[in-house]
Design a protein that fits this description.
Layout lengths: L12 H17 L8 E5 L24 H8 L9 E5 L9 H12 L4 E4 L4 H11 L5 E5 L4 H8 L3 H14 L5 E6 L7 H8 L3 E6 L19 H12 L6 H4 L1 H7 L12 E4 L5 E2 L10 H4 L1 H5 L2 H10 L19 H17 L2
Parallel strand pairs: 1-2, 1-7, 2-3, 3-4, 4-5, 5-6
Antiparallel strand pairs: 7-8
Helix pairs in contact: 2-3, 4-6, 8-10
The protein binds S-adenosylmethionine (SAM) and iron/sulfur cluster (SF4) (2 copies).
One iron/sulfur cluster binds next to loops.
């Protein structure tokens, strides 16, 4: 499940590209607009899971952005060009007002958000989908392996409960997005996890640390050794490529190389549960929208400096969510991918 269906570069992606993304790209390049196309709203910094690679569950914060504050934020002129919105956390289903939030996002922007959940509350998810399915583009869930490994990483019973949520999602005619985070504990479980979920929208990503998301997991050492990275790359070669994010995992893992420069802070924005505005999940807040107003922050010196000096050269991450705005330069990704395939076939 992706925020932008175009990321799967199937069917009429080029038509969609020229219709939706190319005009924005031109605006950005000419400096005529900084309005993002992609927005992450972190609804809560709390969680009911116990994942080893993410510390959100250690938070017990009550103060969270309200439905009304989300409504006002989405009315900011710079947020009127959004093409995709992801609601994430923490655990989104812990928000009792999630149905209102989803409806508000839809009413204000016309965009059906993608909902991220750990799947531990299948009954709550069922209730939500029974009334709000029509306002939701899709639901992404996390599995970090099959039962034993997943539960060791994410906590007891997480596999069983999340599988119930997968069934709930399917019952409503949606295709679950399954996301696997690769770390020391499961780097060799990619193949079996893929095989299990291959009929869903499966993707994977390397573990990352950051003080600005994942409940500040900076001091957790889950980094992959070179041997582990090689193992992942070899396994990945045996899996079909269904989206271009996965297609460049090898380049990222070996050379920290992204196919195109990052558009964080221009094409993408993160709004946290406290109203902080981050250019991406890995970089610090550039201001608090609830105190300073979104427009003031987005057009501030700080934001401008990030756009000019940080994002275009940054190679600090290759998180699927942080590459969403790659739809802006989709033809380059497709061309690079085709060239890579050609080289592998004929030049090796
Ligand atoms: C922070 S979670 C929020 C949504 C929900 N609670 C869940 O677990 O899916 C969003 C995604 O980040 C992934 N994630 C968590 N910790 C991570 C880390 N240290 N590095 C990379 N991805 C991570 C999760 O596995 C999940 O796919
Ligand atoms: S990855 Fe998701 S489920 Fe796990 S602790 Fe973080 S927010 Fe919670
Ligand atoms: S590459 Fe850098 S600026 Fe871009 S999303 Fe990743 S950490 Fe943020």
């Amino acid at each position: 499940m992706t925020v932008f269906p175009i990321m799967n570069y199937k069917g009429k992606w080029l038509v969609d590209y020229f219709r939706i993304f190319f005009p924005r790209w031109v605006y950005y390049k000419l400096g005529l607009s900084k309005a993002p196309i992609d927005c992450f709203i972190i609804l809560t910094h709390n969680c009911n899971s116990r994942c080893i690679m993410c510390n959100y569950w250690q938070n017990h914060e009550k103060d969270e952005i309200t439905v009304e504050q989300i409504r006002q934020l989405l009315r900011s002129p710079s947020l009127r060009h959004l093409k995709g919105i992801e609601l994430t956390g923490g655990e989104t289903l812990l928000r009792p007002d999630l149905p209102e939030i989803i409806k508000t996002v839809y009413d204000e922007t016309g965009i059906k958000p993608v909902l991220a959940t750990n799947g531990m509350l299948p009954r709550v998810l069922d209730k939500l989908l029974s009334t709000h399915k029509q306002y939701i583009a899709g639901v992404t869930m996390s599995f970090d392996g099959l039962k034993e490994v997943n539960n060791q990483i994410r906590g007891q019973m997480t596999f069983e409960l999340a599988m119930q949520s997968v069934e709930v999602i399917k019952k409503y005619g949606l295709k679950p997005g399954i996301s696997m985070t690769l770390m020391r504990n499961n780097f060799d479980k990619l193949k079996e996890t893929y095989e299990f979920f291959k009929n869903e929208d499966f993707t994977y990503k390397p573990v990352q640390t950051t003080p600005y998301h994942f409940g500040n997991n900076n001091s957790t050492d889950l980094s992959l050794s070179d041997e582990m990275k090689k193992h992942i790359i070899e396994t990945a070669k045996t899996l079909p490529i269904t989206n271009l994010y996965d297609a460049f995992m090898e380049e990222w893992l070996l050379k920290a190389d992204r196919p195109t420069p990052c558009y964080a802070g221009t094409g993408g924005v993160v709004i946290t549960a406290k109203g902080e505005i981050q250019p991406c999940i890995h970089k610090p807040s550039i201001g608090n929208a609830l105190k300073e107003g979104f427009e003031n922050i987005w057009h501030s010196q700080k934001a401008e400096s990030f756009r000019k000096n940080v994002a275009p050269n940054c190679k600090d991450c290759y998180q699927r969510c942080t590459t969403h705005s790659y739809a802006l330069e989709m033809p380059k990704w497709v061309a690079k991918y085709r060239w890579k395939k050609f080289k592998n076939l004929f030049l090796k």
